[in-house]
Amino acid sequence: MSERSELAVRAEKLDAADELAAKRSEFVLDTVSDHAADAAGVYLDGNSLGALPAAVPGRMEDVVRRQWGSLRIRSWDESGWWTAPERIGDRIAPLVGAAPGQVVVGDSTSVNVFKALVAAVRMARETDAGRDEIVVDATTFPTDGYIAGSAARMTGCTLRPVAPAEVPGVLSGRTAAVLLNHVDYRTGRLHDLPALTAAVHAAGAVAVWDLCHSAGALPVGLDEHGVDLAVGCTYKYLNGGPGSPAYLYVRRELQDRFDSPLPGWNSHAEPFGMRSDYEAAPGAVRGRVGTPDILSMLALEAALEVWDGVSIHAVRAKSLALTDFFLQCVTAYVPPGAVESLTPVAHEERGSQISLRCQDAGYVMKRLIAAGVVGDFRPPDVLRFGFTPLYVGFADVERAARVLAEVVA
Questions:
Q1: CB atoms within 10 A of CB 77
Q2: Which tens digit of pLDDT belongs to each residue from 57-104?
Q3: pTM for this predicted structure
Q4: How far apart are CA 214 and CA 95, in angstroms?
Q5: 3-state secondary structure string, the chain?
Q6: In whole angstroms, what is the distance from residue 224 CA to residue 201 CA?
Q7: Rg of the chain in Å (alpha carbons)
């Protein structure tokens, strides 16, 4: 039997033993007839936009026709619209290792980064007014850097971009807040959240984490590791849909100190009192600003139902198995020297994506997509493949590596 055949047979056996395999049927995915039979519907871009959960269209039909169309304004109470940000936050909480009452859904990741960073600086200065530096992940997704720069200017801080591994060495009595990405969006490198959070706390600063590329793919442990504030999007591994609202985590012990730079009427202790003075509501509600985006929020709520009965630890185990198998197939199929993996081999340093450096990567990705293998391209030379364990199988992985080999040959 050829090595290719052996890997294909192994993929079949792994899929047969996969405890999460049944979840695939809960998503809207391509079928064999949608593409060439040899590369049918392999979706490896869930690290950018998750696939559509099958329950969402029907739920949105009800939201639009009944809740909005028939009940109209009554739905703020009768359909639970008003409490949706906290209710949906509590559905996300177990996926990031948080107890109920600490996650609120709403706004974009960028807006939540801004809220978290400014609030972090304000908290740090409660005990030491001299803290005037914000440390930011130098490899961060650009928007986080832009927001951090603006927050620094507004709070009179100096912005200090540093690679995550170097953060402990630059922390000092001047550090107010540290903003880090849990997983590097380009390389898929997983950073050491427990150790870095501990280092930030040892310096007396506030730790803020961006979970966009880890929530729904691996255990985060926000409560366990004492993270202060965290933000994340919901349209990647959480499959909430394009532009679905982000979330903000505020550790329970810090909620009464969370001073949002965007004090909107939705976070007021008496939102319908219409008072001219602002009094923050208790709890995670402080993270709210204005009227929630109900349509996209309720689509997210429906999407999160696919997580019922799913262990995030089982998801992580499958994620590592998928990415290991993909690297093995790439090594076996792709001509030597055609691609180079930028993603760490060590499991403790790997998220749920594999990034390959490749000559003419943009052209290669277009060819892959045309053949039914969907990943994405990051300039100048990176192919990214995201592995969402709820709907990606081992046969998908083997097929994707095989088509990649054909394209780059």
A1: 11
A2: 999 999 999 999 999 999 999 999 999 999 999 999 999 999 999 999
A3: 0.96
A4: 10
A5: CCHHHHHHHHHHHHHHCCCCHHHHHHEECCCHHHCCHHHCCEECECCCCCCEECCHHHHHHHHHHHHHHHHHHHHHHHCCCCCHHHHHHHHHHHHHCCCCCCEEECCCHHHHHHHHHHHHHHHHHHHCCCCCEEEEECCCCHHHHHHHHHHHHHHCCEEEEECHHHHHHHCCCCEEEEEEECECCCCCEECCHHHHHHHHHHCCCEEEEECCCCCCCCCCCCCCCCCCEEEECCCCCCCCCCCCCCEEEECHHHHHHCCCCCCCHHHECCCCCCCCCCCECCHHHHHCCCCCCHHHHHHHHHHHHHHCCCCHHHHHHHHHHHHHHHHHHHHHHCCCCCEEECCCCCHHHECCEEEEEECCHHHHHHHHHHCCEECEEECCCEEEEECCCCCCCHHHHHHHHHHHHHHHC
A6: 14
A7: 22
**Cβ-contact 356, 44 below 8 angstroms:** no
What does the pLDDT look like over 173-223, one tens digit per residue? 999 999 999 999 999 999 999 999 999 999 999 999 999 999 999 999 999
The residues assigned a catalytic role are 141, 210, 235-236, 384
Residue where the block lists tokens 């262990």: 311
Kindly report the length of the chain.
Answer: 409
The dihedrals phi and psi of 209, each to the nearest 5 degrees, come to -120, 140
Task: Answer for the pair 210, 96: CB distance below 8 angstroms, yes or no.
Answer: no
CA 249 to chain CA centroid, Å, is 13
What average pLDDT does this structure show over 97-113?
A: 98
Mean pLDDT computed over every residue of the chain: 96
Amino acid letter for position 57: P
Confidence of residue 366 (pLDDT cuts 50, 70, 90): very high
The answer for residues whose C-beta is within 8 angstroms of residue 199's C-beta and 6 or more apart is 167, 168, 171
Residue 38 has a pLDDT of 45
Rounded to whole angstroms, the Cα distance separating 308 from 54 reads 14
